[in-house]
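Q: what does this look like with guanosine-5'-monophosphate bound?
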Amino acid sequence: MSNKKGRLFVISGSSGSGKGTVIAEILRKSDKFHYSVSATTRPPRPGDKDGVDYFFVDREQFELFIDNGEMLEYAEYCGNFYGTPKSYVYSQIEQGMNVILEIEVCGAMQIKKKCPDAVTIFITPPSYSELCRRLEERATESSEDIRKRLEIALTEIKAAKDYDYIIINRANESSKAADDIIAIYEGKYKKNDEPDFINKFINDFTKQ
Ligand code: 5GP
């Protein structure tokens, strides 16, 4: 049996980047990855399943996890706590499995410091207008929440340059984005002109 450890793949992206669909595609296409289910104090959305999408806990329970050192990282986002339970991630890595963390920017930077070996990937929508369209179409949030998420999205997209890789998730091409991430794992991915893309995105955003 190989004793090679697995690696952490940290995937971030603003709301509306389609990162959830891309991750589902990766897990469907490859058996080399497991997904780490986060804990959150956010109330479940319709269709959310406890233990599958998140471990839904109250603030008191979450603070207990933090105090007991059970979180690999955590952050507050839109007034709710989100965090990665340590034990699952460590046991998977020890068994040689690669683990996907789908987390926001502050958490990703905490991981980068703690685990320099982790691969960080930022998924972005193809344009500002497409980002607005996706957020409005989802309509699971109030317009105030959408406004907050757009504001956070700008901050997050500015942080994209601190990631090892930037993957553009074009409309109806989540399968291609998943292939790109699998290619990163296989060492076959070729970087393009993503920083220029991000600069244009930020310009369009700030012009609004
Ligand atoms: P949502 O409420 O849309 O499910 O998630 C909001 C944000 O929290 C997303 O950017 C998502 O990536 C992030 N997130 C989910 N789980 C975690 C986690 O365990 N840690 C951190 N830092 N962020 C997370």
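Residues 8-36+97-206 form a domain with the Rossmann fold fold (CATH 3.40.50.300). The radius of gyration is 17 Å.
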